[in-house]
Batch of 2 targets.
Target 1
Amino acid sequence: MKQKNSAGYRRIGLTGGIGSGKTTAAKRFAELGAKVYSADDIARRALDPGTSCYDRVVSAFGESILLPDGAIDRKRLARIVFSDESKRTLLNGILHPYVIDRLFSDADQDFQAENFRIAVFDIPLLFESGLDAQMDTTIVVASDTETRIRRVIERDGISREQALQRILVQMPDEEKRLRANYVLDNDGSKDDLCRRVDALYELLRPEESNV
Ligand code: ADP
């Protein structure tokens, strides 16, 4: 399979609804030697002082969102954006382009130094954001809804209602399945999932001459 981007390495988009096992699959890809870039990790660090995103958020929302030490008061910002849709749009308009840019620029920069073959981009909103179009291959991790609810309750210590609410606001698994090139079913054990990741990695790993 030839890559369609000109980055020099194969871009694989990995997604899945909350509790599907996406992070677990991403870890396995990393163990196998793929470079893994997480949109959530970048988004978490995006508001740290010193980033261009920090500067833009402070100029958009004002210094009243700052704590005495200069850090953004994330709880306060969350309250603002969750109670006002136009503010939420404003924040997303700053955050999303930053995250996308960092995902690809981090990978391109690492590629210059390490010359790897496969980068896995762990992106919860892969299809919703349209970023799937920039990938050579897309993978969705999918699990039964009841299983996802149980995992999220255990992992995040939230109620069944909260877990269900988080699941219901996302694109349904059925739709992701239809859009993805590959589906990793994760209704068995973690070992089962890892075996499926191993098999898929073998399939996706480019031949020496292909890169
Ligand atoms: P996501 O990133 O899709 O939200 P995670 O990979 O974090 O999901 O998995 C959610 C929780 O379920 C984690 O605590 C993880 O260890 C656990 N988990 C994932 N897959 C399995 C599995 N096949 N069997 C048991 N627990 C699992």
Target 2
Amino acid sequence: MINQIDHLGIAVKDLETAVAYYENGLGLRCEHREEVPSQMVRTAFFDVGGVHLELLEPTSPESPIAKFLEKNGEGIHHIAFATDQVEDQLAHAAANGIRLIHEQPFLGAGNKMVAFLHPKSTHGVLTEFCAPAAPTTQD
Ligand code: CO
């Protein structure tokens, strides 16, 4: 089940100048920064009444965000829906003929398990499902 919009992903060329815009231009406060090696991005998060903005700057030309910027320039990159179980949501989408980018969730920013649907199957909107990662017993 989808519970709410978790965040909007926004591709930016330079995280620092983009953060400065959201902080100074809009008066929002950056609550969290994180590098996500699996996606080759640096991220910065803003809480806007429970829905977050996730700014994404590529750390490598191989990053999906670098490719997006090349093709489209800066702008909205994806919408992320908070769900209880990413696996269940993927299975439901696949059963309905929707193309998946990831068959299995992987660890994304904010200690969340994430996976994406292909924009060719989603009317042009790159779509992410996310859910809190299960706490590990080691720590
Ligand atoms: Co995201």
